[in-house]
Amino acid sequence: MNRRNFLKTASKTAAGLLLSGNICNAANQEQEIDDLEKYDFIMPRVKFTPLRVPGRGQAPDKWHVRPGGDRNLLRRLSTVIRCKTKPILYVNENNGFVPSIGTDNQFNDIVTFDNRDKIIKYPFLFMTGENEFRFTQNQKDNLRDYIKRGGFLFMEDCVVDHGGDFFFRSAYDILENVFGKSSVKTIPRSHEIFHNVFDLGDIGLPYMQGQPHGARGIFINDRLAILLSSHDIHCGWCDNDCTHFGPVKYEQSIQMGINIIMYSITH
Question: What fold, for 3-218+235-266?
Answer without folding.
Answer: Rossmann fold (3.40.50)
